[in-house]
Amino acid sequence: MFQRNASADWPWCEDVATYANARLPQALIGVGRTFEREDMLGQGLRSLKWLLEVQIVEGGHISVIGNQGWFPRGGERARFDQQPIELAGLADACYEAYLATGERRWLGEIARCFDWFLGRNDLHEALYDFRTGGCRDGLRSAGTNQNQGAESTLSWLMVLLRMHEIAKEEDISREVGAIV
Questions:
Q1: CA 142 – CA 5 distance, rounded (Å)
Q2: What are the boundaries of each domain within the chain?
Q3: What is the DSSP letter of 100?
Q4: DSSP strand E in 43-107: where?
Q5: Alpha carbon of 155 to those of 1, 3, 18, 30, 179: distances in Å?
Q6: Is the separation of the CB atoms in 60 and 109 below 8 Å?
Q7: Architecture of domain 2-179 in CATH?
Q8: Rounded CA separation 48/21 (Å)
Q9: Which of 50, 67, 71, 147 has its CA 20 to 30 A from that of 90?
């Protein structure tokens, strides 16, 4: 799919980047890593890097592709509505990239996804609600979507889990370093 549709300036498998985009690179990276398929691993890493390039904006925060127009080849990337499920997929793909490469930059990208939920986003508004434990359903041009659905809350929890895994790994690294 990628080989038929991708080009140097559009390294994507379709003519429109839409929903759950990072799940495609995640799958390619995971399969490439597991079955030692360098072609799949390479394509997965290239497409994930491209997704990050087009979604990290001035100021260094993530602005995921919005569902009010998506991102067509040769067109403009829709800024809104941004949905939490996109960040969960992106964090998972970055974690898979970290497992495949050992490059710490991927851990920083997971932290960037985490920060999006806490207000480092286009609207500078937190989506995670510390009072209810829920997560708002997304960023709209007029503000946050105040609904706190299961999909959004689970997306937040998945990114939180990735952050916990990173912190646990960091603790283990420090302990090993202290012993050695």
A1: 35
A2: 2-179
A3: H
A4: 71-72
A5: 27, 30, 17, 20, 37
A6: no
A7: Alpha/alpha barrel (1.50)
A8: 9
A9: 147
